[in-house]
Q: What sequence folds into this?
């Protein structure tokens, strides 16, 4: 029972915002701390990352000496549970970077680090929309479209930490398909990310509008926003169908500002999903909106650290 | 060491052909027995299946009293390792059929049964092209296109035994995409199965030819067969890319008569696969031809049974 009170410094590291809080074993957060920090420059070095994170975490470590570990979600590919970052698309100078080990040596505390979308999946499964499900595909709709997979209660990383590149499933093979940031045509990310939503809206309306406003406008009939969100939902349903046909996984959760238009988005996704499944899988898949929102990654990272210190 | 000599009755049950042999722990087969048996009629009942299989296995069981178990690959969806067939597309009367238990009670020997494509994956990993790999996606190109997945040395079945419906990944979204047997348009099966190869060849040439002859003809320049096989290879590469982006799995094996045209097929698959992967995965994936051919399913089924009786 002593582990029930283990305190973890949980953190969610983004390209422009970094965030941390103290988390107890029940997922209760306190002492939250946020900071803008440019962690997506082509010049950012390993030492830059360690310096920025160490400076950011130190006040919390000093405030709460009982902290057992740091659990951190980070954008990039991690090799298994090693804490070694093999690569990070927005931090091209980092390769085979022993992030957990170096930060642990600097701060003198255990550090557990995992891919940010995978942390969000763990968060939703442990404390959020997918509690009680042993298998989960969690989809994050933000600047990009990410995915995290849990199989039999175990976070799935793949052979080189690059599993669940869900955003790069192809949902359109037309010659005029949208161009994705990865260089390919027709990836679901190029239709359903927040960036794509704004770009598609601009293409239809000629008006520049942020994705959050588009989600609101989409709830009214006859708007360009409605068309854009319906197309995104349709494409998401197609991509989810491909994942389900491979994995036979029955629970999907989705996070991101996008779910502000859930009453429109959900039926569109479900229609497209079921249309694209083989008959015996039709009607068996549940698609749930995140209930943790921005906290999913933080809570999942804390949970992973908690599991390590409790064993 | 005593388990090294465990003898298994290994079997591969197809829609029209059933096959069995005695297998030792090293995958050596003997006393092979084949039979034509219609196991794909809409009227086939549970009792029909048990009667056909029991009559077919009895002579082998009598011949070798030391047999420890029957290991059997069967076309259909199995719930985990339970031996319960939830459904079989070509045997519509079977639902939640306790196949392993009923056959075991009838023949008085342990019966281990699993999906046929998954057995083939286990066979290639244990004795064939993918020996030494912990993770494998095995693709079977026959009347249909199937898939079997091994993650961390464990056969992956999914939540309802329907994982790796690889043949139904969509590789074409055009309105004139090929119609698949599942009712959807543009599934990879509708381009790369033996049936599809013959149909595509007929469409181009007006000549009815069996798939094996088409593979041979494909090795000559300027033939319709070459065009058909290249298109199939291109579509297979696209579908493999989708699976790799989700699973980050680096070893793929392929079985079926199709690999008779491997010298043409392999470069076509690789080009299409790498073109459709995200950059960090490009060049990392190995696609291997089966070396076990028709024996993969039989050997994998035997291996699964051997693992059960050895523990």
A:
């Amino acid at each position: 029972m002593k582990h029930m009170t283990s305190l973890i410094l949980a953190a969610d590291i983004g390209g422009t915002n970094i965030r941390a809080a103290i988390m107890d074993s029940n997922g209760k957060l306190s002492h939250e701390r946020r900071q803008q920090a440019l962690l997506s420059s082509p010049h950012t070095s390993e030492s830059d990352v360690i310096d920025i994170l160490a400076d950011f975490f130190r006040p919390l470590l000093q405030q709460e000496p009982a902290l057992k570990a740091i659990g951190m979600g980070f954008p990039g590919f991690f090799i298994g549970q090693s804490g070694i970052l093999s690569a990070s698309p927005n931090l091209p100078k980092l390769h085979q970077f022993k992030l957990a080990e170096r930060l642990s040596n600097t701060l003198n505390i255990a550090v557990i680090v995992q891919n940010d979308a995978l942390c969000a999946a763990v968060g939703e499964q442990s404390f959020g929309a997918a509690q009680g499900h042993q298998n989960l595909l969690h989809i994050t709709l933000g600047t990009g479209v990410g995915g995290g997979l849990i199989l039999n209660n175990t976070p799935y990383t793949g052979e080189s930490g690059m599993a669940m590149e869900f955003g790069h499933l192809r949902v359109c093979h037309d010659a005029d398909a949208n161009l994705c940031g990865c260089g390919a045509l027709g990836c679901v990310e190029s239709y359903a990310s927040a960036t794509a939503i704004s770009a598609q809206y601009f293409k239809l309306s000629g008006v520049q509008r942020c994705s959050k406003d588009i989600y609101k406008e989409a709830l009214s009939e006859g708007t360009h926003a409605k068309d854009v969100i319906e197309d995104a939902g349709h494409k998401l349903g197609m991509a989810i169908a491909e994942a389900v046909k491979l994995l036979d996984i029955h629970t999907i959760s989705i996070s991101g500002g996008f779910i502000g238009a859930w009453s429109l988005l959900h039926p569109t996704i479900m229609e497209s999903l079921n249309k694209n499944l083989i008959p015996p899988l039709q009607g068996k898949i549940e698609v749930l909106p995140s209930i943790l929102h921005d906290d999913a990654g933080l809570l999942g990272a804390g949970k992973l650290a908690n599991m390590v210190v409790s064993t």
